[in-house]
Amino acid sequence: MSTSQPPGWPHCAHGADPAADPVGCRGIQVPGHTACLAHLAGTARDAYLASLTPGASINHRGTTFTEPLLAALLDALRDPATGQPRLGEAMFESAAFEGGAWFDSATFEGDARFEGATFKRDARFGGQPSRPWPCSSL
């Protein structure tokens, strides 16, 4: 999502430029940090991911996910009893998934929100992959 209007949440703003892009990265800030998950430095990102437990609610609105970043997030939420990711409420509104988005083995125990999310490659939610499309609501 690239508009001159900032999102309605505290956002990362990485790469903001008053002339070219006054908003910068629209990813929501990770709690306790001023960066989104995509721009959080290595040790801070590792600490955040280590703090997650299976069934935790997450909020990554506006964040850009590479395939490895999404895999790391889902691994942090992996239930040792089942070997599958287990998420509480999952907020991915306006997120951008740059690589494959493999949610096919994940369990969502709360609301899963993907309004305005974009998938540039295949996405899987428990079935056949969907082709790239902007998602208005799942």
Number of domains: 1
Helix content: 10-25%
Look at the helices and sheets and give the structural class: alpha/beta
Q: Topology as H/E string?
A: HEEHEEEEEEEEE
Instruction: Please state roughly what percent of the residues sit in beta strands, choosing from under 5%, 5-15%, 15-25%, 25-35%, 35-45% or over 45%.
Output: 15-25%
- What would you report as the Rg, rounded to the nearest angstrom? 15 Å
pLDDT averaged over residues = 89
**Any low-confidence stretches, pLDDT <50, length ≥5?**
127-138
Number of DSSP-assigned strands: 11
What is the 3D form?
globular
Distance between the termini: 18 Å
Provide a compact summary of the structure.
The chain is of the alpha/beta class and 138 residues long. It is 14% helix and 16% strand.
Write structural notes for this entry.
The longest helix is centred in the middle third of the chain and has 10 residues, at 42-51. The strands form four sheets. This protein has a four-stranded mixed sheet. It is globular. Mean pLDDT is 89; it is low at 127-138. By secondary structure, the protein is of the alpha/beta class. The protein has one domain (37-134). 14% of the residues lie in helices and 16% in strands. The protein has helices at 42-51, 67-76, and strands at 58-59, 64-65, 86-87, 90-91, 96-97, 101-102, 107-108, 112-113, 118-119, 123-124, 133-134. It starts with 41 loop residues before the first helix and ends with a strand.
